[in-house]
């Protein structure tokens, strides 16, 4: 009849957690000989535009990590309820539709998932306690690719953002001193989903940044990276195996290796025992804009203009908003109203920008932000965006907190299970 039989053979060994099947009314667009994007008909052309440069990212990754062994690299756009930015299923990366900003400003996630083709898929962690071997390495590779494509200052700028997200996570997502903020946490009788956070990503990245700086820079460490990927290709390994391989590879640098406090890096909770020296050239522009807003006094002429953001990248806009959010005191409402007017903040499409703006507004207890915030957590189910918004709303005691809880209970049936469990925790519903 009308049925069609397709056969797919995966010739590469993969970890069981990487096996996934997607079913739906999907169409594809060809982006390169071995690169395609799949999506529902209403979305597929938007996706093809958004990810048109995927082959360029893939080639940059090969230059750093070695040959791409998986033959094809395809992407599929999942429904909005998908709880992650992406999932690196071999040959077919699953991605969230929140990346479809319309201006290719959110494609860092694709570079991250491409990097997983080596760090995570080719070389996998042997347990979730060693998850940083997947995600820390992948952040490290992702930012190196960004540096090669856009300049090293862009790599540093991305790392600054990662450092701040790590600080935010350790301060706000866990109790002080939580053992789950260790790079290699003890997950005995712990659901790994409860430990999921930016710690393995950003603390892991910082550890590799530190090791590269300590052992001689990229000229020395990038060959080590390729040797590591070659040695453990198609294998799962533990942190101890990584430590042994690093020590064996750099036998001529014993003095430097002896200075590494492995216990502090791997097992101590909290922030890393080392703060990188970042090039803050791109972040400095954001700081100047934030300071301009901070210094503005009510009753005086506003020193800002609608052109402020024209020269900033989307990532710099995110950084500017992050700095506004992180100020000691909430931003006064007269400033938020002016910012919204000048920058058309309520019209922004990029979800990273929307997240920061909504957090700023909720922290300042601006009633006008409540409805947009609830709409934001309804239209998509990505935990990176859901959880911070729900946590901010929960801090707003009284009617807004109750409204947020009711909204969650009314909409949880449309969310994926892991997102429901995490938000229940954030709203303290798991204690009832």
Automatic annotation (TrEMBL):
Domain Peptidase M1 leukotriene A4 hydrolase/aminopeptidase C-terminal positions: 281-427
Cofactors that this protein relies on: Zn(2+)
Compartments (UniProt record): Cell membrane; Cytoplasm
Topology with respect to the bilayer: Lipid-anchor; GPI-anchor
Cross-referenced CDD domains: M1_LTA4H
Active site as annotated: 113, 201
Principal cellular location given in the protein's record: membrane
GO CC terms of this entry: cytosol; plasma membrane
Residues that coordinate or bind Zn(2+): 112, 116, 135
Molecular functions per Gene Ontology: epoxide hydrolase activity; metalloaminopeptidase activity; zinc ion binding
Keyword set, alphabetical order: Cytoplasm, Hydrolase, Metal-binding, Metalloprotease, Protease, Zinc
Gene Ontology BP annotations: peptide catabolic process; proteolysis
InterPro entries (UniProt xref): ARM-type_fold (IPR016024), LTA4H_cat (IPR049980), M1_LTA-4_hydro/amino_C_sf (IPR038502), M1_LTA4H (IPR034015), Peptidase_M1 (IPR001930), Peptidase_M1_C (IPR015211), Peptidase_M1_dom (IPR014782), Peptidase_M4/M1_CTD_sf (IPR027268)
Co-factor note (free text): Binds 1 zinc ion per subunit.
Family: Belongs to the peptidase M1 family.
Record-given protein name: Leukotriene A-4 hydrolase
Organism this protein belongs to: Hirondellea gigas
